[in-house]
Amino acid sequence: MDISDECRFIESTLSRISAEITTLLAQKARLRQRLNTLRAHTSVLPPETLACIFDYTCLGHRDRSNISSVCSHWHKIVQTTPSLFTFISMRYNRANAVDFLLHHHRHAKDIPLNVELHAGRYVSPQKMRPLLNTLLTEIPHNLKSLTFHNIDQLTWSLIEAHSDTDSAFPKLTSLALNFSADAQNLTLKATKPLFSGSRIRTLSLRFAMPGLEEKLPLEDITLLDAKSISSEHGMRFLIRCPKVVNFSWEVDPGWRRTPVETTAVHALPSLIILPFLKTLMWRTGDMTPVASLIQILRLPSIQRLEWEESPLLPQSPPGPRDFRQQFFLSMAELRILQTTLNESTAQMIRYLPTIITAEITCSSGISDIFLDLIRLLTWTEKNRTLPCLKALTIILTSISRVELDVVIEMLESRRAEKHSQISTFLETFTLRVGLHDITEIWEKRQTVSLKRLVKGGLELIIWEDQRAPGRMLVL
After folding, report:
1. C-alpha dihedral over 68, 71, 73, 76, to 10 degrees?
2. Contact 423, 389 (CB under 8 A)
3. Nearest residue to 247 via CA among 208, 192, 214, 205
4. What is the Cα–Cα distance from 317 to 289, expressed in whole angstroms?
5. How many Å apart are CA 34 and CA 41, to the nearest integer?
6. pLDDT digits (tens, 9 = 90+) for 246-271
7. Which of 32, 43, 69, 326 sits at a 20 to 30 Å CA gap from 363?
8. What are 353-405's pLDDT values in tens digits?
9. CB proximity list for 270: less than 8 A, separation 6 or greater
10. Sign of the CA dihedral 60, 65, 67, 68?
11. What does pTM read for this prediction?
């Protein structure tokens, strides 16, 4: 290569390098502009506004740490916003648990704390005892919400020992006691009321032991959520909550009845009225043990009822005749019913004339009960069951041609002009079928009848759940 060629090579290399430098400088300028923009965005809002945003999005220690790491400006705002330190979630055996709790207590200043405690693989009494002592005896005056998970015998003995003292919980409005499934045989040892001085509005229970309802302050409860306790025990809680607005009761798969829970309820008043209860969710409950309670319980303000009774067992003793009648007839404001079909459903809906919206789930193997129910819902000159019903949903695993014929007859009766003067037309009907293509069982005459109902103004929704997430069929 001669000198001239070498000069040209150097010039071309310099030109290429210059172009690359220009590109890199432009890229650097864009990144710097983006960085400045980000810095401007983290600082452009007033501290008060950022504090409100952080308060809305921050759910605990981890969220707070992430927010603090963005920039020094955000870190300063986090450290000077007391409300960001009010939510505490930790394990019972957390290292330095007491220091962690008191750190939040100091930073929260006078704002009440929301504390949630979880169990780890191994819970050490040496770590748990000082934590619960600090929580329940040193700062009970500054607690708004308490949630205990996986309560076993050791945990409960410590909670009981520290919460039946003379310490007051004046700001405590929410309490959740979630016992472990193997702790159902625990017994109460407290001689004084637990969590004294509190005005608990929201109470959540799981696997609670009998007798607990006598030790908790229930007079101000408005929301009661009870899982995995017997129907009798659930009712004992309910009747002690005169201001309850929403009550939910449900059995978890891990629950089993304990011998202690079969004891009868004594010294019942002649009538129990819960004037503020608006929502009742009762699932898989055996009604036989609480028949005497149901007879004297009145719910005049209830508007939504989710009712699922467990099937009667062969060994179950029969309850009093029509013990549900006055209970359901007292629900003069009831508008929404969600229930599971069983032997008592027909009896129940006869006593609920004010229902506007109903959803009925039908399990397999009860075709005769289903047909009886649909015939009961079919209007005749003498039968006006559910006269105010406007929307009906039926959920089935399968449906036969005979059952479809009876359903169509029911729909036609509730859309007939001759009944419009004294009852309300059914406006919406939803049919959900789970196990097969329902169009396979339709006959042409049935399709014609359904189309005629749609043409007459009925909103007809037919949903097939066989293909997830399901499909809606259009006539």
Report:
1. 30
2. no
3. 205
4. 9
5. 10
6. 998 876 544 455 444 444 444 567 88
7. 326
8. 999 999 999 887 778 899 999 999 999 888 889 999 999 999 988 888 899 99
9. 296
10. positive
11. 0.75
